[in-house]
Amino acid sequence: MTAEPMRVRIAAAALLATLAACGSMPQQHPESANEEAAGYNVQLGIGYLQKGDLAIAKEKLERAERESPRSPKVHSALGLLYERLGDPKRADDEYRTSLRYAPQDPEVANNYAVFLCKSARTEEGVKYFLEAAHNPLYRTPEAAYTNVAVCLRAAHRDDEAKQNLQHALAIRPNFAEAAYQLADLEFERGHLNDARTVLTHYTDSFDATPELLLLGVRIARAMGDRVAAEHYARSLRMDFPSSEQARALSDLNRNSGS
């Protein structure tokens, strides 16, 4: 995968999960029944966004805004909606509104950073990801540093990306996404030995993901190591037979004549 779709997979998926959860979690100190109703409508709206039904998602999220106009979760969800509707200015306005209502919330900063990086506003995106990473209330700083790296990769700032990925793995050595991104970065730069070192260091200690196994096939083939390539391919077919990566392996084999 390239850096751009990977960023969407990491961060946007996390944003959807975070926003969807806000509707199902009980309010600790609800000011009114409207806040609870707004949370429920955010949950519904995000569900419709995930299904691609933007019209109903818009209806639910606009209702949530009327019920709780100062909710940062509502405005983050509206930001995502307007992204999907192809209105980046309105999306930016909604994310900024979310930040205004929750300036110390690391999830809100992370959500806006996702949007900024997808919009090629790298410096701003990195700034907000790092704000989230440095916030002691943020439970997964390794994910924020990985997102920083993916954002930097999209801007071809590979050395900085590498530093952030190494930092992510120093925080959490078993974070597969950071290991994948670092190995893929080295592979794309033509640093095959470094890519293999990252990959084997991870897989020797932790369970491999389908992404790492497919990358292992690609690295081994590029190095002319047919034994290692078959080892990774066999593990991918046996452990993740229905995965997107197993299907990609079949396409790779057909294209290479293997």
Walkthrough of the structure:
This protein has 14 helices and no strands. It is mostly helical. 44% of the residues are buried. The protein has two domains: 150 residues, Serine Threonine Protein Phosphatase 5, Tetratricopeptide repeat; 86 residues, Alpha Horseshoe (Serine Threonine Protein Phosphatase 5, Tetratricopeptide repeat).
SS-based class: mainly alpha
* Beta-strand residue fraction: under 5%
How many DSSP-defined strands?
Answer: 0
State the helical fraction: over 70%
Q: If helices are DSSP runs of H or I spanning 4 or more residues, what is the number of helices?
A: 14
CATH architecture of the largest domain: Alpha Horseshoe
Ends distance? 21 Å
Mass-distribution shape: elongated
Element layout with pairings:
Layout: H1 3-24, H2 33-51, H3 54-67, H4 72-84, H5 88-101, H6 106-118, H7 122-134, H8 141-154, H9 158-171, H10 176-188, H11 192-203, H12 210-222, H13 226-239, H14 244-256
Helix pairs in contact: 1-2, 1-6, 1-8, 2-3, 2-4, 3-4, 4-5, 4-6, 5-6, 6-7, 6-8, 7-8, 8-9, 8-10, 9-10, 10-11, 10-12, 11-12, 12-13, 12-14
Characteristics:
single chain; 258 residues; mainly alpha; Serine Threonine Protein Phosphatase 5, Tetratricopeptide repeat; 2 domains; 14 helices; 0% strand; elongated; disordered N terminus
Short synopsis of the structure:
With 258 residues, this protein is mainly alpha-helical.
